[in-house]
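User: Hey, quick favor. My workstation is busy. Could you predict this chain's structure for me?
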Amino acid sequence: MLLHVATAFWLVAGLAGRDVSFTRAARATDITSVRALAGAVGVFDRFFVIPASIAVLVAGLIAMVATHLSLGEETWLLVALILFLTLIPLVPLVFVPRRRVFEAALAGSVAAGEITPALRAAFADRAVAGARWYERIVVAVIIALMVTKPF
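Assistant: No problem, here it is.
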C-alpha cells in the first residue's frame, strides 16, 4: 500500500514539475530560456510522468490484491481504474503527435535564434492544453477516491 502511495506522489510531482516548466517556457522571452525549460519538461516526462504512470497502475493492482479488495465490491476502485485507463488514449492521440510538432517548432526557433510564430502556436495548442487539464482533473479525482472511498 505504501508503494502505491509513493508512486502516486512520484506521478503528481512529475505532473507538477512538467506543468510549471512548460508554463514558464511558454512565457519566456528568449529562445535560450525556452530551450532550457523545454528540456526540463522532457526530463519530467521521461523520468517522472511516464514511469510513474506505469508504476502507479502496477502498484495499485498489487495493493488491491494484497488487501483483498475486489473491483466488484469496491465501486470507487472500479471508477478509479476506469478513469485512469481513460488517460492512456491521450498518449497516442494527442501527446505523441503534438510533441513532434512542438519539437519541430522548437528546432526551427533554435535555428532562427528567436521564438518563432510556429513555436508560439505550438505552446498555445488547445488539444494539448485540454488533454493536460483532463489529466490533472482525473488524477485529482482518483486521489480523492483513494482517500475517501465514497462508495
